[in-house]
């Protein structure tokens, strides 16, 4: 190949490249006129599985959106922004428009209606002037007590399901109201052979005042004959409880709501027993807080008829001693039956025999 042909080819190639690059416009972007591309994401309402199933069923049946359009318009009319604004501007003129607007915008955004809570009835205790209750006192021997033929080395058995129960006495309790003060007297007498051992009555008395929280004892006495006498004095101002027993005095810090062994029986008239399952109680020997547990409720047949009751009990799984109370719903939760289990599993039972209630006029 001749040299000038090669020179001509190179020259033509340079001309072609010059012409090609001359058509490309290289310039700096004017940032002042540049605008970013803005993309807005619009949240779409969720499609429930029920709607998808309904659409699938409609396709199978040949129902199209066009055929259902008149029905849809009637059920869900299209609301424009102008209609919403005009509705909100006229709220003060017509309150019904507010309800209509809320119904249109959201079916679930209905106003919450006020919940009507019935007023609590007056406590049973405030209506009472006096209560007289007579109990029959029964003594039930433990599984290993009584005749030698009934002794079982491991307690109760299938052959001996029923323990020996004897009526050993009567108990009279009088509850009297005088203005804002109360007095409760308690007298237990033995009957039959038991009276040979316990010839003297057991006396208890509780005195105090009544406030919005129920009974507030000031004085309590437990007395059997002339030798056994225990007293409890409640000093609410100094918050002190003094127990006098066998000429000895003990002081305790007085806890709000403290009851004595007698007043607590009537305290349930003022407080719902299921809302007050802890109660500080003294029997003029010791002072401690008793924790009661809910057991059951139902109807029990008694000497005064069928009674709707709530059964609560104070017990400890590691201690055989136990106190059970059956509270009468129709008598202000008065205990119509009391069962006291001793550590030898013998039981003292007090069951209502008569009751007289006198209410205020």
Q: What order do the SSEs take from the amino end to the carboxyl end, as H and E?
A: HHHHHEEEHEEEEEEHEEEEEEE
- The CATH class of one domain, by name, is Mainly Beta
Would you give the CATH topology of one domain?
A: YmcC-like fold
Largest sheet: 13 strands, antiparallel
Enumerate the strands of the largest sheet in spatial order, edge to edge or round the barrel.
8-7-6-5-4-3-2-1-16-15-14-13-12
Q: Overall mean pLDDT score?
A: 75
Helix/strand-derived category reads: alpha+beta
Helix content: 10-25%
**CATH architecture term of one domain:** Beta Barrel
What is the CA-CA span between the terminal residues?
Answer: 142 Å
Radius of gyration from the alpha-carbon trace, in angstroms: 44 Å
Shape: elongated
Number of strands: 16
User: How much of the residues is beta strand, in percent?
Assistant: 35-45%
Low-pLDDT residue intervals, each spanning 5 or more residues: 145-161
How many helices? The count is 7
Structure description:
- The chain is an alpha+beta fold.
- The protein has a domain of 236 residues: YmcC-like fold (Beta Barrel).
- 20% of the residues lie in helices and 40% in strands.
- It has 7 helices and 16 strands.
- Strands 8-7-6-5-4-3-2-1-16-15-14-13-12 form a 13-stranded antiparallel beta sheet. Strands 9-10-11 form a 3-stranded mixed beta sheet, with no helix packed on it.
- A hairpin with a 2-residue loop joins strand 12 and strand 13.
- The longest helix is centred in the N-terminal third of the chain and has 20 residues.
- The N and C termini lie far apart (142 Å).
- 16% of the residues are buried.
């Amino acid at each position: 190949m001749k040299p000038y042909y090669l020179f001509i080819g190179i020259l033509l190639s340079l001309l072609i490249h010059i012409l090609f690059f001359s058509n490309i416009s290289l310039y700096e972007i004017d940032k002042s006129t540049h605008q970013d591309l803005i993309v807005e994401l619009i949240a779409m309402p969720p499609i429930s599985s029920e709607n998808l199933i309904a659409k699938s069923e409609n396709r199978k049946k040949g129902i199209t959106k066009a055929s259902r359009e008149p029905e849809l318009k009637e059920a869900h009319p299209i609301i424009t922004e102008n209609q919403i604004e005009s509705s909100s501007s006229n709220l003060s003129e017509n309150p019904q428009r507010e309800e209509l607007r809320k119904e249109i915008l959201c079916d679930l955004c209905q106003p919450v209606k006020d919940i009507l809570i019935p007023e609590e009835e007056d406590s049973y205790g405030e209506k009472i002037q006096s209560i007289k209750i007579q109990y029959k006192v029964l003594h039930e021997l433990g599984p290993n007590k009584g005749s030698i033929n009934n002794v079982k080395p491991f307690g109760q058995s299938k052959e001996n399901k029923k323990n020996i129960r004897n009526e050993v006495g009567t108990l009279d309790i009088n509850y009297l109201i005088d203005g804002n003060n109360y007095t409760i007297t308690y007298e237990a007498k033995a009957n039959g052979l038991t009276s040979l051992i316990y010839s003297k009555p057991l006396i208890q008395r509780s005195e105090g005042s009544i406030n919005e929280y129920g009974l507030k004892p000031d004085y309590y006495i437990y007395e059997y004959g002339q030798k056994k006498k225990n007293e409890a004095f409640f000093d609410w101002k100094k918050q002190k409880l003094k127990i006098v027993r066998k000429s000895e005095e003990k002081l305790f810090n007085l806890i709000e709501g403290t009851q004595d062994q007698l007043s607590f029986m009537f305290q349930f008239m003022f407080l719902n027993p299921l809302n007050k399952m802890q109660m500080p109680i003294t029997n003029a020997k010791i002072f401690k807080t008793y924790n009661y547990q809910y057991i059951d409720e139902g109807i029990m047949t008694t000497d005064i008829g069928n009674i709707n009751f709530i059964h609560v009990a104070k017990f400890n799984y590691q201690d055989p001693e136990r106190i059970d109370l059956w509270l009468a719903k129709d008598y202000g939760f008065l205990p119509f039956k009391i069962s006291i289990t001793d550590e030898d599993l013998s039981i003292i039972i007090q069951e209502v025999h008569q009751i007289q209630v006198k209410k205020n006029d």
